[in-house]
Amino acid sequence: MFKKYFIAAGIIVLAGILFIAYLFLFPKGPDLSKYEFLKEPRITNLPAQKMLEVRVTGDPNVVGKDGFGRLFKTFFQLKQTTSGLAMVPPRTRWPKPLNTPKNEWLGIYGMPIPASITALPEQDGSVKAAIATWEYGDVAEILHIGPYADEPPTVQRLYKFIEQQGYTIIGEHEEEYLKGPGMFSKGDPKKYYTIIRYRIKKVS
């Protein structure tokens, strides 16, 4: 199972996550120093999170820009009417099996939002945002520093850690983009910060 997820993660990285290059609004990112401890894999417990979510089916190389585009557009519409709404790094989840044809892949693009948001502004176009809850519980996560294409060894390291700790993966491959390409340039890929995360459960 770990091998399957490892291959899938590598393909996801190569398949189109770079669409955030011109949409990503964190040229400097948050305070990255507080994430340095995640260079070592860890298991922790996270509460369920209310999310602004966009689901897009299709080859990520083709439709990824639509997912992130709708996500950010809706977020900034909310920001105009929601006092104190802070920009936070986006996340993605990839739930379908590796052998799914690319044109049937489901990309779930999300940004955390406060519980006080209960409705979204009117949206145009065929790609829509919605309010959803992302379940968490026990998770394993690790910080990857560097280009997205170099993620597979980091993912493999996380898999080995999960197995050694007596857990198994029960959730989708998830990535949280702390620092990536700037809005107008790709920046230095060697300095990209990405949290790789899986929901897990203890093996009986």
What is the highest CATH level, the class? Alpha Beta
The dominant shape is: globular
Bin the strand percentage.
25-35%
State the major sheet.
Answer: 9 strands, antiparallel
**Average pLDDT score:** 85
Figure out the total of helices: 3
Quote the distance from N terminus to C terminus.
16 Å
The SSE string, one letter per element, is HEEHEEEEHEEE
Number of strands: 9
Q: How much helix, percentage-wise, in residues?
A: 10-25%
Rg over alpha carbons: 16 Å
Number of domains: 1
**CATH-assigned homologous superfamily:** Regulatory factor, effector binding domain
Please give a quick description of this structure.
The chain is of the alpha+beta class and 204 residues long. It is 25% helix and 29% strand. It has three helices and nine strands; from the N terminus they run αββαββββαβββ.
Record the SSE blueprint.
Elements: H1 2-15, E1 42-46, E2 49-57, H2 60-81, E3 91-94, E4 106-112, E5 129-134, E6 137-145, H3 151-164, E7 167-169, E8 173-179, E9 193-202
Antiparallel strand pairs: 1-6, 2-4, 2-5, 3-4, 3-8, 6-9, 7-9, 8-9
Helix pairs in contact: 1-3
Give a verbal description of the structure.
The protein is of the alpha+beta class. It has one domain: Alpha-Beta Barrel (Multidrug-efflux Transporter 1 Regulator Bmrr, Chain A). The protein contains 3 helices and 9 strands. Strands 1, 2, 3, 4, 5, 6, 7, 8 and 9 form a 9-stranded antiparallel sheet that branches. α1 (2-15) runs antiparallel to α3. The radius of gyration is 16 Å and the shape is globular.
